[in-house]
Every structure is written in structure tokens, then in C-alpha cells.
């Protein structure tokens, strides 16, 4: 079906992003996966073609665009190229929106130019060893001491945490026994602050080009001017930003599932079984037809959600539905496409194997599928 959300400008931008990916991402991905992170100069290169600052106001060197559609083009193209750049995507799709929404004038002056020119790399630290889905239970504390907060606690699974210059940390600044959601704040920790300790770059089964860190905050003195938004209002801010983050994950899920179908079609046309191309067998045709139909359904949801996001009407429950459907569909589709590849699909040198491993996490991060179902069922009055 013809998509109707993009203009000629988006498509021209798409062409240049596609060329950039073919030159700068596809050939380098194996090296980044072996290293366990994306080199910093990559962020400078994406900045040069205007990707990093799309939504940053132009006085800070950004593109000043309100719409999320140009960002969507970038993440779709990365997915179509069968790549998942977790750290890069979290930096721009998850963390930057908090700065765009909540940074004050002085913070904008300090940080926006670095986001726009690619010299700043960021991460967000919500999850703790004992707390993931139940975010209201955060135990990291930030106690006010004069002009500073003293930050103590441990975070884990932090994408981009090994290399980040700025980490937004969710910490408890006060306790309300009646309401655990109250009293959480967002503090921006800078990479060189004493007491900020980066632990292991965790070994994962997929998303290997993105660093995933354990972080410790041991009496880190964070100036109060690094408080993002209002003290005690983090839960509200997180709830406000999560729909866009969840839609971004859905977009990547759909795009990588699309890449898998294209890989399976190419493979099925080339591979001979029982003396004829695999694509000639009715089962192959039917499996891929089912996959194409699933992609179409996901696309309709994503495009509708993008219109709602740009219009300011994307609800948490709707974003949860889109993430739930697209990431569960991604898993089904990529699994079927791997099956089409037979034993070769299980070999790491085949991109379908990477897609399979990378896909597993989209049903976990940004809120698990079970959490999505909780959000949706709450909106149904259940
Ligand atoms: C590769 C990777 C990158 C990540 N990047 C980041 C990052 O950059 N920043 C960050 O802060 N976090 C990050 N995370 C953490 C991620 O968001 C959490 O793993 C996720 O929210 C789940 O939390 P948990 O792992 O503690 O699982 P738990 O919350 O312990 O959940 C365990 C199981 O219980 C289920 N469950 C939980 N609550 C309910 C319920 N109410 N009803 C039914 N079932 C339930 C879950 O769905 C899951 O199946 C990342 C994780 C991974 C794997």
C-alpha cells in the first residue's frame, strides 16, 4: 500500500541517508560489533549530514524541525540495512527528547551545540539491578546539599553508558509513603564527575555494536543546575516521553522485519532444493506472503501513530499497542525468515542471524510486552 505520510523532502533525505548507511555503516558494522561499541567519530559524521540535530532549534546548530518524520526516515533506513545501532538510537531517540522537552535556557546553551555537532554522546539510566519494570521502586538517591545533590546508587543495562558524556539518571530526591511515583527526579551526570564509575560493558546475545553498561554513583556531587525539569516530577516526564520512545522501537522492529523478508526473498530465489529454487515451493511463497501481510499491518499502525505523535495526540496506551504489535510481529517474521534460510540462517555471517539475535530485546527494553499489556488494559478500565 502506498504510504501517505512522507513528502518529496523526506524522500530526498531518505536517499542521502541510504547512501550514507551504505558507505559508513554497512561496511563498518562487523568491526563495531567486535569492539562492542560505535566509535565516537561516527556521531560526528552523522552530525555532518544533519541527522543529530534534526529537532534541535536552529540557533544551536540544529535543523529546528518539530516533526518526528525525518527521524523516522533515519531509523527506518538503518533497519532496512539490517543494522541495529542501539547506542546511537537511544542517544537521539530516547535521551535527546528529554533535553528538547525539559532543558532550561542555560542547559540548552551548554548542551545543545554538542548534540547538534556530534561531540556529545548521551545515555539514560533508569534500570537498577533490582528494579526494571517497576520503575517507581527506584532506590538510587539524590540528597540536596547546598547547591548540589549527592547521588548514590547502581544502574544496569544502560545503553551507551560506557561512552556517554551525559547520563540522565533517575533518582529519588524525596519519599512519599502514600505514592511511590512522587519524589523521583532526573539529574544529568557528566562523564568526568568524581564518583561516577563505569562498570563492565555487558556481553549480550545481540545488539553487539551497542555498549550496555553497569554504572555506579558513589557520592557523586551533581550541581543543582543539572536537574532536568522539575524536582520530583520524573515519573510524569518519563510517562510523557515513553510513547515516542516506544514508537521508535516499533519503527525499528518493523524496519528490521522488512529487511528480513527481503533477505529471505533473495535467498529463496537463489537456493536450490530438490533441484529447483526454494522460492518455487508453495510453502515458501505462503510463508513470505504471511510475513508481507504482517508487515503491512504493522506499517498501517506505525504510520497512524506517527501522525498522532506529530499532532500531539499519541496516547500511552496507543503507543503501547504499536510497540506490542510491531515487536511481537518482528519476532514472528524474523523467525520465519530465518527458517527459510535453513542452517545458513543460524550462521553469524548471515545478516538474518544478526537480525534474529538483535530482535529479541525489543520485547524487553522500553517496557516489556507484559508491561505494554498492563498499560493497554489499564486504558480499558481493567
Ligand atoms: C540490551 C538492553 C538495553 C537496555 N537499555 C537500557 C537503557 O539504556 N536504560 C535503562 O534504564 N534501561 C535499559 N534496559 C533495561 C530494560 O528497560 C529492562 O530490562 C526492562 O524494563 C525490564 O526490566 P527487568 O530486566 O528488570 O525485568 P523485570 O522487571 O524483572 O521483569 C521480569 C519479567 O517479569 C515480567 N513482569 C514485570 N512486571 C510485570 C507485571 N506487572 N505483570 C506481569 N509480568 C510482569 C516482565 O515482563 C518480565 O518478563 C536495557 C535492557 C537491555 C536488555
TrEMBL record:
Keyword annotations of the record: FAD, Flavoprotein, Oxidoreductase
The keyword GTP-binding is annotated on this UniProt entry: no
GO cellular component: cytoplasm
Gene3D superfamilies tied to this protein: Acyl-CoA dehydrogenase/oxidase, N-terminal domain, Butyryl-CoA Dehydrogenase, subunit A, domain 2, Butyryl-CoA Dehydrogenase, subunit A, domain 3
Pathway this chain belongs to: Siderophore biosynthesis; mycobactin biosynthesis
Reactions mediated catalytically: a 2,3-saturated acyl-CoA + A = a 2,3-dehydroacyl-CoA + AH2
Acyl-CoA oxidase/dehydrogenase middle domain boundaries: 123-220
Recorded superkingdom: Bacteria
Presence of the UniProt keyword Protein biosynthesis in the record: no
Domain Acyl-CoA dehydrogenase/oxidase C-terminal, first and last residues per copy: 236-380
Pfam families: Acyl-CoA_dh_1, Acyl-CoA_dh_M, Acyl-CoA_dh_N
A GO biological process held by the record: fatty acid beta-oxidation using acyl-CoA dehydrogenase
Segments forming domain Acyl-CoA dehydrogenase/oxidase N-terminal: 7-118
Cofactor: FAD
One example GO MF annotation: flavin adenine dinucleotide binding
Family (UniProt): Belongs to the acyl-CoA dehydrogenase family.
Known function: Catalyzes the dehydrogenation at the alpha-beta position of ACP-bound acyl chains. This results in the introduction of a double bond in the lipidic chain, which is further transferred to the epsilon-amino group of lysine residue in the mycobactin core by MbtK.
Protein name: Acyl-[acyl-carrier-protein] dehydrogenase MbtN
Gene designation per UniProt: fadE
Amino acid at each position: 500500500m502506498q504510504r501517505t505520510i512522507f513528502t518529496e523532502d523526506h524522500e530526498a533525505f531518505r536517499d542521502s541517508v541510504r547512501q550514507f548507511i551504505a558507505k559508513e555503516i554497512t561496511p563498518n558494522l562487523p568491526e563495531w560489533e567486535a569492539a562492542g561499541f560505535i566509535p565516537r567519530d561516527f556521531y560526528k559524521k552523522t552530525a555532518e549530514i544533519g541527522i543529530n540535530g534534526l529537532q534541535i532549534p536552529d540557533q544551536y546548530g540544529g535543523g529546528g524541525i518539530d516533526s518526528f518524520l525525518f527521524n523516522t526516515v533515519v531509523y527506518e533506513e538503518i533497519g532496512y540495512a539490517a543494522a541495529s545501532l542501539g547506542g546511537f538510537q537511544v542517544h537521539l531517540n530516547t535521551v535527546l527528547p528529554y533535553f528538547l522537552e525539559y532543558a532550561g535556557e542555560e542547559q540548552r546553551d551548554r548542551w545543545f551545540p554538542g548534540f547538534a555537532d556530534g561531540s556529545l554522546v548521551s545515555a539514560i539510566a533508569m534500570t537498577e539491578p533490582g528494579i526494571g519494570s517497576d520503575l517507581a521502586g527506584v532506590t538510587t538517591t539524590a540528597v540536596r546539599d547546598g547547591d548540589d545533590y549527592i547521588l548514590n546508587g547502581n544502574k544496569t543495562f544502560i545503553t551507551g553508558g560506557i561512552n556517554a558524556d551525559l547520563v540522565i539518571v533517575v533518582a529519588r530526591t524525596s519519599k512519599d509513603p502514600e505514592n511511590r511515583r512522587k519524589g523521583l527526579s532526573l539529574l544529568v551526570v557528566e562523564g568526568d564527575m568524581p564518583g561516577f564509575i563505569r562498570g563492565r560493558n555487558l556481553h549480550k546475545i545481540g545488539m553487539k555494536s551497542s555498549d550496555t553498561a553497569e554504572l555506579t554513583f558513589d557520592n557523586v556531587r551533581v550541581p543543582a543546575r543539572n536537574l532536568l525539569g522539575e524536582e520530583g516530577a520524573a515519573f510524569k516526564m518519563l510517562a510523557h516521553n515513553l510513547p515516542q520512545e516506544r514508537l521508535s522501537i516499533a519503527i525499528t522492529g518493523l524496519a528490521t522485519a522488512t529487511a528480513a523478508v527481503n533477505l529471505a526473498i533473495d535467498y529463496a530465489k537463489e537456493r536450490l532444493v530438490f533441484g529447483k529454487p526454494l522460492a518455487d515451493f508453495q510453502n515458501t511463497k505462503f510463508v513470505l506472503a504471511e510475513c508481507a501481510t504482517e508487515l503491512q499491518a504493522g506499517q498501517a499502525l506505525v504510520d497512524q501513530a506517527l501522525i498522532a505523535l506529530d499532532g500531539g495526540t499519541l496516547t500511552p496506551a496507543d503507543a503501547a499497542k504499536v510497540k506490542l504489535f510491531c515487536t511481537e510481529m518482528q519476532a514472528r517474521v524474523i523467525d520465519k525468515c530465518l527458517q527459510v534460510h535453513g542452517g545458513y540462517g543460524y550462521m553469524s555471517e548471515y545478516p538474518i542471524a544478526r537480525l534474529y539475535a538483535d530482535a529479541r530485546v525489543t520485547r524487553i527494553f522500553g517496557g516489556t510486552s507484559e508491561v505494554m499489556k498492563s498499560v493497554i488494559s489499564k486504558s480499558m478500565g481493567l
